[in-house]
Structures are given as structure tokens and as C-alpha cells.
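Hey team,

Filing this mostly as a record. A colleague (T.K.) asked me to run one chain through the structure pipeline before their review meeting, and I want the input and output archived in the tracker in case anyone asks later how it was produced. No errors, nothing strange. Just documentation.

Input sequence:
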Amino acid sequence: MTALPRNITFDCADPYLLVGFWSQVTGWPLSAEDVPGDDEVLIQAPDPLPGFLFIRVPEPKTVKNRVHLDLVPADGTRDEEVERLLGIGATLVADHRRSDGMGWVVLADPEGNELCIERSAAERAAAG
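Output structure:
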């Protein structure tokens, strides 16, 4: 017997606000059932991927996430993706890019949840 993830759940102060950011990150649509003010809001991922579920909680984020997403650009480069996400509301946490092209960038979403941006598949393939 095995278990498959249905959703990846984010605790947050404002689910609808945060889902807007993550919808832009992924390109996935918001659930048609969700509206501003809802305590739970879903981004629907294409099958078989898990959706992203955002749930309102009363307490703020206070420490580094114990789990985070490592993302790769679907098209373009890591550096272009970092700039795109900074432009839609992410903040820079740490830059671990190296002069040889290796490394990653740690960003935070508008509520401080960390995520990493790695090189695209094309960048990894070109590096050998």
C-alpha cells in the first residue's frame, strides 16, 4: 500500500492573497469555488500533480520552513525566473549562485514561506 499527495498545504494569514502569488508562479488556476475572504483556497494543479491548498491560521510565520519547494523554470533560465518572481512579490532570502553556473536562489513568498529556484533542465543539460 502507498499514499499519494493530494495537496501541498500552506498555512497563511490571507489565503486569497497568497494564492494569487502562487497561481502566477505556477501558471495553475484558482479553484472556481474560491472567493476573497475564504479560509481555504486551492490552486488546481494538472493531474497527477498535487494542488496547493492555502489555509488561514491565526498565528504568523516565525521561523524558517522545515519543508519548502525547489522549483525549476519551465522555460527560460534560473536567473530570468528569479527576476520574474521578484517582480510579482517574492523577496530575496539568500543567493547561492556560483560563478560556474551551479547553485540556487532562496526566495520568500509574500508571507515569508521559502522556496528555491534552481537551474532549468536546459541549463543543467548544457552544463553537462
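Quick notes for T.K.: The first helix runs from residue 15 to 26. The radius of gyration is 15 Å.
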